[in-house]
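Q: I have 1179 residues here and want to know how they pack in 3D. Can you give me a structure?
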Amino acid sequence: MLTFSRLKSGRIAFLFALIAMPAVLQAQAQQPAAQSPPVAVDASVPAAIDAAVPGAAAPEAKAGATAPVAAEPPSDQNAPGAAAAAAAPAPATTDEATEASDRAIERMKARIQELEARSDVAPDIRDQAIAQLRNALGQLEAASASAAASKRFQDSVQRSAERIAEAKQQLEAAQKDAADADFENRISKLPLAEAQQALDASNASAATIKADLDQLEGRLREMSTRATAAREEQTAERQALDALEGGDETTSSDAHPILADARRAAIAAERRARAAKLNTFEQELISLPARQASATARRDLAALKLDRLTKRIPIIEARVNALQAADTALRQAEADRDARKLAAKHPVLEAYVKDTEIIRQREAEAVRLLDQSKSRFNDIQAELARVRDSKVAAQQVLEIGSIGGEFSELLRTMRNQLPETSRLQRRIADRNQAIVDGRLKRLQAEEARRALTDTENMAERILGLYAQRHGETPPAEVRESLEKLVGARRDLYVQLHDTLVTRISQLAESNAAERDLLNQTTQLRALLNSRLLWLPTSGTIGIGWLDQVRTSFGWILNVEAWQETASTLLSRAAQLPLPTALVLLVFSVLVLFTRKMTRRLATIADTVRRYSSDNYMRTPEAMAITALLSVKTPLLIGYAGWLLTLPPPPPASEFSAAVGAGLLAVAYLLLFLRLIQFISAENGLFSAHFGWSERARAVLHRNVIWLKYTITPIALILGMINVSSAQSVRDGLGRFAFLAGAFAVALFIARIADPRRGVVAERIGTGHPLWAMRMIWYPLISLVPLAIAGIALRGYYDGASQIRDGLLLSVTLIVGAYLIYSVIMRQVLVARRQLEIARALERREQARAKAAALQETEATGELQPAPVVAEPEVDIASISDQTRQLVRLTVFLLLGTTLYFFWREALPSLALLDVPLWQQVITVDGAPRSMPVTVSNVFVALAIGIITLIAARNLPGLLEITALHRLRIEAGTRYAISAVSRYLIAIVGLVFAFRSIGFDWSQVQWIVAALGVGVGFGLQEIVANFISGLIILFERPVRVGDTVTIGNLTGTVSRIHIRATSMTDGENREIIIPNKSLITEKVINWTLTDSITRVTLKIGIAYGTDTLRAQLLILDAVKATPQVLDSPAPSVFFIGFGSKGLEFEVRAFVLQLAHRSAVINDLHVSIERALREKEIAMS
């Protein structure tokens, strides 16, 4: 079929070419004597160039000695070659023009060499003149190439008649050979070796002819548009040649003579090159019909040969398969017979034969799979050829420009017949897995064969095992028989190995062809999708349209067709009893539990309204119940539609299949509308879980109900019509139903989006920016369905249907994205409430503990230990806002990306984002491959960057409110985790953003390493602080809220950043400490593990005092001092004799560093008072 279509399309061009051949040959014969005016310039150009070059010989003097080089070049008037140039005869043929060009090239080369050797010319003048002469040499070479091309075009005309006649004779002979009825009989007599040889030769010939055929067809496509392009190029060349006229006079009069002559030579050479190019265009146009006729004849011959081989190869292949199967069956029968004889001799032989039979079955299964793979490969090749032909045909049709309804319907049929991309991808994946399994089995077969190489050794081992188990040694004849069986099994493994190798190769070849098919299918589908949207399928509506509507109503109201559909539905349901029973059971259960599920929704709604009983599982449970309530009716309708769309048996009429498609469309639409209906019910998700107002919920619920009953029959009609082949039904009832559905949807949108009483008014409020623009967006969105209906009425029914389906899917995605966003925010709200409750309870417990400690202090007179300094915690309101921003942006970007990739196939304008900006080299399977980086990649990188920026700012808050507060870790640890996660998000986001625009790590790692070295030297302090900040966050030697001393600075840590740490001292000053100092210097952390610190005082008393009595007085005074801890107990030591008195040291402990100053003051006062009262003098 493929090649016959090519033959049919080529015969017309072939006949036209034969008719045009006499005129072409006559024009070619007369062409040298009737050159066009610009081409005639070629006659005198060679001599003019020679005359302009100083020292060059004229054409007439070529046989003589070379003229001496003059000191100064002659002027144009006195040039010795000027007269010869004027009188030089024009070359009569292209051969003479080629010879003249060759002579001019040689003279120009000689002139350049002479000028390079001259020392009497200034270097700058000589260099400029040589550059001009080299330019002239290039132009002369271009003229020579053009003359050669003209010669080839002339020769092609002379040979075309012979080629066409030869191709015609071969075509007639091939047609007779194709009608050879005895071919199959001759093939049926060939032995296996000759049949296999014939098959290989035929496949090789078919591949060669296919390549030649593709090349010829490509050449013919180029020739079909070459005439226009060649004439445009010829016109441009003629204009450029006309612009060169008078170019000799443009040379400045004060220029150096050598330079001026070189410039004139360059101009003359350019004239010659352009004149030769004009002649080439002329010869190309003259020879074009002849070359087209020749290529068409050869194309038709190649197509006929390929068609003949395509028909004969299956015959030869069937013969080869039959002979191979017979040979395999014969060998297997002989092996079975021999094995049965040997098995009867001894039990060990019988067991070995049984195991060998299992291997034989595996080998037979491998052969069967190999035959299946070959058959599938042929199917892929046929499908690939069909898709390629369809692609070529589609390109040719689309190049026409204005396409009517017949061609647009052809293109739509072509698109509908394309294989599904997902199916092709799935088959490739399955075949890859089969290749992996085959390789493993091949290795196992190879190992098993290698183990059986030594048959005698293997037989001895088997008999030895048998003797150990049964206590007897088989006779010698059993050993010989076993060796034969081992050899037979080894040969069987060899066959299995070879079969597996062949199948793996066949699978790999099939995968390559399938990938090519996938690529061709994707390209053709993209091409058709980009053009079919705006191609008409029918005429605009008129008086005749009403007759079409009336006639098509008779089609859909056909009682007999509906009865046949019902019968088909019942018979197919009876053929599938298990799925039918399962669907009916699920439907019955849903019907029985409808009231119970409705009551459960009301209970969940009441629970959600109370904070104390609300939890994370309430909303997911309500969503699951809503989905079960929504799926009840669509499940039954969708199953009925699926049954009607199944392939036979039993056979179904086109009407039944159309009803099945309509029921599937109804099931999808009904599921969506019922879901919205139950979500917007009184105790549904919108009002009870997502915070909708009662009025907005009621408006949506009420309008969805009437839309559901209105749009369902329309969806059934449109679904049936979309698969109907009756064009009149599509144009009549289809457009009528489309218009009715558009009115219903427009009314629904108008009521829902009403800025005064609709859902939008309740959701956005009067203060929203959209409210100020309501007079713009409200009419636009309300009229969108009617605009699409107008497109259908204008004749673009399929395009309008595609837009309608796309909008419906887009609305579904938008609703789904809104539900996901609302559910996430609902979970965040629950988490926020629980966190607030937990913190409130924690504050309550702290207040109770503080009150109890105060009461105990008042009762005992002893100060109780104060709690450890609490670490600051994140603000709940701020992290809730961060979470909302992050979730909103993420959902919006994912939705926008999904909609873009969906609509890009339908709207060609979106394909502008696929414009490549630069090429990226990647490595695939060890081989470099160039991949374009497009505008869409840049947008993806920007989107990733925006998501990374917002996620780095807001994701720590989401972690805090959803996960970290549940873990039993301190607030400082949670702070460290949040800080580190922020930097990890930034790093990962940047990596993915750069990868999306082609900067892979393998390409920039050396740059990063070099920058790292530079940064290490130039910014080593900043890097050191950065690393130190990470160490602080992980090891936590210092925490927020700790009191630390660094050098002579003491304060409380308030914030820890990645570069520096903030500390507040006793004077309420903010001190910035680089993180490096906290790691490398000596740091005293007063509250790292224990906030209790020791206070040390030195007391001196006069000599002669009773030291024991003084020590006890001081100790009692210390113990009586408030805020001095009993445990560890205070102590007083007599430490020595000072120059002025006896020295004592007081050691007391306080709860925290903030108490030290007050305790020291109180100790001084208490000790002084106690000693003074006992009349003990202090030194």
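Q: Anything worth noting?
A: The CA atoms of residues 162 and 914 lie 49 Å apart. The longest strand covers residues 916-924.
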